[in-house]
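Sequence, please.
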């Protein structure tokens, strides 16, 4: 019998749940204060009326994290075009973050400056990582302390969590995919559509199932196209991406 009451597995699951509360979709972002490479912030003030991305990293001066922040820095203008503010988190000091930023810029082929196009939060005591459920219990540093996992939180202008992606410390993220997801979130937040598998901006989208056909025709003057299926059910309704 595996995972029964009182078993090591169930005890571990309970301890994880207690120690890693995290955020659920629809939760409001906590209005925390933190020291960053661009000064002290209060999170809600930092976000303002923008969308926001908070992404965490296991540690400064580590290989995968350096490549991730390098790619994030390269894509920063694209996120800015979409009214998205970016902010990173790592469990080292502000001074370490600033020194590490030189390596990140050098990795990108830029001048080794201390400045990146987004701030990095200093969370040396792991207090914020614990509060947000960002610790990876299976990856630990040389002192046996759990490392921060690779978490991505996307918040809307209402400060509520719209998307959460959790990667282990050993797997780097795809920031082009995160940009694509932001495009989908912003489109579907304001239009009654959903984006199908492998969707990219400019591709056709799907009409949400709750929208009646007659209303769909009015909302989408470019046309609604239904794919025939063996079931006879007309739920695969496509329309060109609305403006």
């Amino acid at each position: 019998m595996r995972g029964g009451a009182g078993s090591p597995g169930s005890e571990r699951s309970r301890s994880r749940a207690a120690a890693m509360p995290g955020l659920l979709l629809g939760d409001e972002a906590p209005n925390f204060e933190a020291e960053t490479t661009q000064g002290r912030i209060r999170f809600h003030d930092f976000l303002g009326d923008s969308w926001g991305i908070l992404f965490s990293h296991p540690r400064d001066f580590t290989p995968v994290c350096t490549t991730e922040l390098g790619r994030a820095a390269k894509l920063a203008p694209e996120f800015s075009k979409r009214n998205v503010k970016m902010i990173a988190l790592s469990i080292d000091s502000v001074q370490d973050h600033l020194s590490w930023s030189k390596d990140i810029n050098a990795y990108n082929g830029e001048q080794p400056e201390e400045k990146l196009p987004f701030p990095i939060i200093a969370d040396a005591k792991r207090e914020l990582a614990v509060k947000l459920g960002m610790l990876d219990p299976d990856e630990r540093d040389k002192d046996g302390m759990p490392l921060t996992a690779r978490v991505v939180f996307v918040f809307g202008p209402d400060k509520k969590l719209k998307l959460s992606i959790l990667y282990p410390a050993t797997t780097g993220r795809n920031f082009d995919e995160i940009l694509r997801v932001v495009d989908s979130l912003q489109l579907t937040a304001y239009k009654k559509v959903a984006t199908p598998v492998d969707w990219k901006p400019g591709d056709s989208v799907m009409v949400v199932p709750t929208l009646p056909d007659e209303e769909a025709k009015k909302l989408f003057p470019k046309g609604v196209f239904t794919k025939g299926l063996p079931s006879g059910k007309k739920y695969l309704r496509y329309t060109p991406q609305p403006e």
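Confidence is low (pLDDT under 50) at residues 1-20.
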